[in-house]
Each structure stands twice: as structure tokens, then as C-alpha cells.
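Try this one yourself first.
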């Protein structure tokens, strides 16, 4: 049985990697043809264009691996059926679930690979690719904006407002700070023409401080220079929004905590966090689905029919996945259901197909 398991594993890996290579080549070909004009118009050197597509490969591979696993499963057992090997295996008393176990284990290994790509490689490479595309091709400002206007920021017990903020020089113009008590009642307000981050403290120039007492009275005090040790630094006000693919799971979790602490709704990032986990198991589910379909008949689906079925199922999964994700982002579905319901549905169907195979 060990020899047969090695044989099935080798054929499955060969077919899956072949499909992945073909898909990747076609995808990159379409990408190059669609973006070549933009690169030439922007006057970008060929080396930069090559780096852009190299940085794009990990994300493309992550998205294509589940489809390659599904089609690799269909082709592997399809060729077995074409050569009457399935009938020979059954005649030898080999259980079909036991025969498919190497494929399931390798599908799980591909799931681990997807998880590693999403956590280690893609956040860095995708950010670099987006930086090349936005700055060197589209000539946009850097996403980590150095000069920002009309900034509002909510800290633990302070709300900051800046008319103009220069991250590079660590200065701000038109600063207004609202300080609150633990019961969220206003305790004081500071207005200043300019604020400078210097030696770990904020230094405010030419301003006014108003202090409000619980009994409703207040007093005002003008100043030319006033230093305050505040927990927020200029980097906290930097606008640098990342997509879900550009963040690791830990960064997503930290972002969710930060948004909740600021009093905003983090649903979008909670959905992305759950999707990061759920998508890692798609390869295993696709392998399970492919086995169940391929082995339902001794003659299988046939190679051509297996290819068509694989593409159709992958397309159906992506439609359901995208629809469920959009429901989660809109708040219609809870984030957990939005991320896991496509996997759950396909897992149930794939498990049923596998368990009802004629032995």
C-alpha cells in the first residue's frame, strides 16, 4: 500500500504543479498585456516592471493554488480511470478513501503553504508591488502621506484636531486638543497656532488653554510656549491604511483593537481576519471535493469533463465566497459566518460525495 500511496502522491503533485504553472503563466501573460501600456507611458525601466510582476507572484499563487489542487485531483483520478487503474485498485480490495488519503494530506500541506504565503511573503511583496504601481506608474503620492490636512484623531482620553500636519518635520499647524475625564466630560481644551514634537514631548506655541470645572465654570490661560507629555506621537497620526493582504494576522488583530479603542466599527477588518483563516483551508476542501467527484464512477468524469468541472466549481466557489464576503463587510452577515459559510457548504457537499463513493 505504501508503494501505491507514493504513486498517487507523485501523480497528484505532478498534475497540481503543472496546473499551477499553466494558470500562473496565463495570469501573468494577461497582467503583462493589460499593464504594459501603463508602464511604457510612465517611462518605468524594465527592471522595475520585472520587479513589480515578481512581487505580484506570491498573491497570484495563493489565489490559484486551490483551483490547481481541485483540477490536479480531477486529472489524477481521471487518468487513473482512463487507464482502468481505479477498477484494478478496487479489484485488489483497496478502499477508495484509503487510496485518496495521500491526496488529502497533500491538500492539507498546500493549505499550510497558503497560510505561510499570507503571513510571511505576501504582506511584504504586495506592499512593494502596490508602491511601484501607485508611485512610479500612476505617479501618486506615497501612501504613507507626509503632509496631511484636517486631521481628527481620537486617543484614550484626548481628541486631536490639526489643520495641517507635516509628518516629516514633525510639526502641526492649527492644533486643537480636547481633554476628557473618565466619564467623558470635557475637562480642558487647548488651541495653538503651532505644535512641534521635540525630545519626546509636544511643544505648543501661541495658544490658549481653557479648563472646565465640574460645576460648569471655566478659566482661560494664554501662553507663548507650553510643553505636554502626551501618549500620542506624530506616527500615530500618519494615514497609512493597508489592505487585508498587506497585513499579517497579528497586524489585523492589532488594527481591530486600535479601531475599537477609538470608538469606531472594525467590522471590515474582523471580516478580513476571519477570511485570512478560512481561505487557508480552501485547498483541503477543494481536494476533498475533487476526490468525491472523481471517484463516484469507476470510469470517472473523464479528463476533459474533469477540467470543465473543476473550472466550474472554482468559479462557483468564488462567486459564493465574494457574495458572502460582501454581506459580511456590509454588516448583514456576522464576520464569522461571512468568512466560513462558503467553506462549510463545500465541506459538507465534498464530505458527502466522499463518504458515498462505491467501494
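Now uncover the answer:
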Amino acid at each position: 500500500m505504501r508503494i501505491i500511496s507514493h504513486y498517487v502522491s507523485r501523480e497528484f503533485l505532478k498534475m497540481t504543479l503543472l496546473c499551477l504553472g499553466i494558470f500562473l503563466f496565463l495570469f501573468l501573460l494577461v497582467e503583462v498585456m493589460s499593464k504594459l501600456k501603463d508602464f511604457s507611458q510612465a517611462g518605468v525601466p524594465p527592471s522595475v516592471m520585472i520587479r513589480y510582476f515578481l512581487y505580484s507572484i506570491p498573491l497570484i499563487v495563493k489565489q490559484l493554488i486551490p483551483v490547481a489542487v481541485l483540477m490536479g485531483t480531477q486529472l489524477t483520478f481521471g487518468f487513473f480511470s482512463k487507464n482502468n487503474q481505479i477498477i484494478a485498485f478496487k479489484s485488489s480490495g483497496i478502499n477508495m478513501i484509503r487510496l485518496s488519503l495521500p491526496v488529502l494530506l497533500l491538500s492539507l500541506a498546500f493549505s499550510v503553504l497558503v497560510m505561510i504565503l499570507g503571513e510571511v511573503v505576501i504582506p511584504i511583496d504586495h506592499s512593494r508591488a502596490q508602491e511601484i504601481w501607485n508611485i512610479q506608474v500612476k505617479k501618486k503620492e506615497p501612501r504613507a502621506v507626509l503632509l496631511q490636512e484636517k486631521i481628527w484623531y481620537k486617543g484614550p482620553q484626548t481628541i486631536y484636531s490639526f489643520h495641517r500636519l507635516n509628518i516629516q518635520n514633525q510639526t502641526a499647524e492649527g492644533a486643537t486638543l480636547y481633554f476628557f475625564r473618565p466619564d467623558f466630560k470635557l475637562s480642558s481644551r487647548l488651541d495653538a497656532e503651532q505644535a512641534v514634537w521635540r525630545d519626546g514631548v509636544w511643544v505648543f506655541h501661541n495658544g490658549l488653554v481653557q479648563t472646565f470645572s465640574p460645576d460648569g465654570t471655566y478659566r482661560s490661560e494664554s501662553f507663548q510656549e507650553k510643553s505636554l507629555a502626551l501618549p500620542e506621537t506624530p506616527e500615530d497620526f500618519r494615514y497609512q491604511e493597508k489592505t487585508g493582504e498587506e497585513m499579517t494576522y497579528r497586524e489585523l488583530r492589532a488594527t481591530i483593537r486600535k479601531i475599537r479603542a477609538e470608538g469606531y466599527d472594525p467590522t471590515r477588518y474582523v471580516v478580513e481576519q476571519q477570511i485570512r483563516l478560512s481561505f487557508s483551508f480552501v485547498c483541503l476542501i477543494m481536494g476533498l471535493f475533487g476526490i468525491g467527484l472523481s471517484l463516484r464512477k469507476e470510469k470517472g468524469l473523464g479528463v476533459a469533463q474533469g477540467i470543465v468541472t473543476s473550472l466550474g466549481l472554482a468559479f462557483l466557489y468564488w462567486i459564493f465566497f465574494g457574495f458572502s464576503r460582501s454581506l459580511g463587510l456590509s454588516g448583514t452577515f456576522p464576520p464569522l459566518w461571512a468568512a466560513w459559510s462558503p467553506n462549510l457548504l463545500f465541506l459538507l457537499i465534498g464530505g458527502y460525495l466522499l463518504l458515498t463513493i462505491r467501494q
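Discussion: The beta strands are 147-154, 158-166, 171-180, 186-198, 201-212, 218-228. Confidence is low (pLDDT under 50) at residues 143-147.
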